[in-house]
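User: Please fill in residues for this 342-position structure.
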């Protein structure tokens, strides 16, 4: 059965609401409308507007209410309608959500799941296409999770809701309508958070990626195979906690690594990932760890986003450059070979 990521997320919320009366969903337009992307479609009708509640347009107030709910034993799931809309609530995240367990010496955990649609690729205007993962990664006390497949959308969201610590759950908008053969009547939870997944095995180089860039890297690996390159694709799934074991084992096998993400490169997630790989795999590396990212600019207008986001050709160009360091420079595969010669 073909299922979209939106449907998998909806199933995860529905099952969590059904199994645990402490779970509540709240956010702007999540009730009657079913959310801007229809992720919460039908939940208010089935569980009542007390369990799936529309809120005022006040992100700081939404998250502040969720803090109080969690302190009193509930498990709120908050939707921040778009990535950059979450910024007004950032003070609540940093000052209270991330600190409460430490502040109370473990007596008051906050099992809050903060759902944030993020990333580009959908022609969104300003404040609708940000990749804000680095802000949350840098905040101790938060778990940061992002699915790259339909199955993980369900499994990771269920695991996030079950977690006793706050989770920032980043949903890649460009994958909302992606389809996969996945049975909603036989779903699987992810056994805890913090494990990466090897989506494709290979020996030439490792592509380290997550969320919206997983499909891109798999496409790049398919194109590279035509030229004899055998790329391994690692879907990180969780940025915090980070699966050093799987990542380092992959890079030690291949000797080369490229980190791919949509966010700006400077001080982005890729910088931390590259540093961790270099520190732990230095003697196995045949070349420096490279990054393919969005440019270091505010997110551009919709007609220009194709020039801003990573592409298959940019990923393959990075893999080609990895081989320059050991005296080999194979012809780079790709659909626009002139791009590699420029």
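Assistant: Residues filled in for all 342 positions:
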């Amino acid at each position: 059965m073909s299922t979209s990521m939106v449907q998998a997320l909806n199933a995860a919320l529905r099952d969590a609401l059904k199994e645990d009366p402490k779970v509540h969903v709240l956010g702007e337009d999540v009730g009657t409308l079913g959310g801007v992307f229809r992720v919460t479609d039908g939940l208010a009708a089935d569980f009542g507007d007390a369990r799936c509640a529309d809120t005022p347009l006040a992100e700081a107030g939404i998250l502040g209410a969720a803090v109080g709910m969690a302190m009193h034993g509930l498990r709120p799931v908050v939707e921040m309608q778009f990535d950059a809309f979450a910024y007004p609530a950032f003070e609540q995240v940093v000052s209270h959500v991330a600190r409460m367990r430490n502040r109370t010496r473990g007596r008051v955990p906050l099992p809050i799941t903060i759902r944030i649609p993020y990333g580009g690729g959908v022609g969104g205007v300003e404040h609708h296409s940000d990749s804000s993962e680095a802000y949350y990664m840098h905040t101790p006390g938060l778990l940061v999770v992002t699915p790259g497949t339909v199955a993980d959308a369900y499994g990771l969201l269920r695991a996030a809701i079950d977690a006793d610590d706050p989770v920032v759950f980043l949903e890649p908008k460009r994958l909302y309508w992606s389809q996969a053969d996945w049975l909603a009547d036989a779903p699987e939870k992810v056994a805890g958070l913090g494990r990466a997944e090897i989506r494709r095995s290979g020996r030439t180089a490792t592509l380290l990626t997550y969320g919206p860039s997983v499909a891109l890297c798999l496409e790049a690996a398919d194109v590279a195979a035509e030229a004899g390159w055998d790329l391994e694709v690692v879907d990180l799934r969780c940025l915090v906690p980070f699966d050093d074991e799987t990542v380092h084992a992959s890079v030690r096998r291949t000797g080369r690594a490229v980190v791919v993400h949509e966010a700006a490169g400077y001080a982005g997630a890729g910088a931390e990932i590259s540093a961790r790989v270099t520190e732990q795999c230095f003697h196995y590396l045949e070349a420096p760890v490279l990054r393919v990212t969005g440019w270091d600019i505010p997110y551009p207008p919709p007609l220009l986003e194709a020039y801003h986001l990573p592409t298959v050709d940019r990923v393959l160009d990075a893999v080609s450059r990895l081989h320059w360091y050991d005296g080999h420079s194979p012809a780079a595969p790709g659909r626009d070979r002139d791009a590699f010669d420029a």
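For context: Residues 335-342 have pLDDT under 50 and may be disordered.
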